[in-house]
């Protein structure tokens, strides 16, 4: 790769990072997700302390809100790609950066750079809260298991954000993208798990849940964390690729 090409990619990435960092809705979403996570973790911790606390795992309690946290990741990803279509800002972007494939790829990379530390902090805050509140009663966890689990949770939230950003780029409108993704994750997918039990582990959200949950020997066709990661990454890459293809071949 030539020096000019590297410089061009660096400039595009810097521009996309700057746009995301200066977008207020991005920070409102992050702060809202963080606060909601602590509230939910507090509720789950309280329920654990009142129940059979001795059999509860700090990780299970601390990450019990992951099913709800994915809503924050979905909103974050959609805002990252749909916000430019509000008021026609996308035309200015494409005038300044005519290389559409590079531009959308850089946007996803910039989003990942922001999401990874944010997702880790949010996931770790829940586990830390559960540890502080339940350290005298809950099952002790090994540090390496905690690190792997938090890494899996961070990866799942990041992949969900990137997949949502790709869907946002395809639909180009915030409300339809939110309806489609929230409808799938919270309505369609739970129903499909009942009707298609043999295929449920290959849905992006179900496969992703194995990234941060230890496999259970009681479950049939349980995926390992690596298998869950692979399937989730495949779904994400497919949607990003499709989004880039459509983005390059249609009008703004």
- How far the N terminus sits from the C terminus, by CA atoms, comes to 29 Å
Question: Number of DSSP helices?
Answer: 10
Q: Measured on Cα atoms, how large is the radius of gyration?
A: 19 Å
Task: Indicate the mean pLDDT.
Answer: 86
Structural class: mainly alpha
Please report which band the strand proportion falls in: under 5%, 5-15%, 15-25%, 25-35%, 35-45% or over 45%.
under 5%
H/E element sequence: HHHHHHHHHH
Q: Name the helicity range.
A: over 70%
Find the count of extended strands (DSSP E, 2+ residues): 0
Please outline the major beta sheet: none
Shape: globular
Q: Which regions contain 5 or more consecutive residues with pLDDT less than 50?
A: none
What does this structure look like?
The protein has 252 residues and is mainly α. 76% of the residues lie in helices and 0% in strands. It contains ten helices and no strands. The chain has helices spanning 3-21, 24-50, 58-62, 66-82, 89-96, 100-134, 143-171, 174-195, 204-209, 225-248. Helix 4 packs antiparallel against helix 8 (174-195). The longest helix has 35 residues, at 100-134. It starts with a helix and ends with a helix.
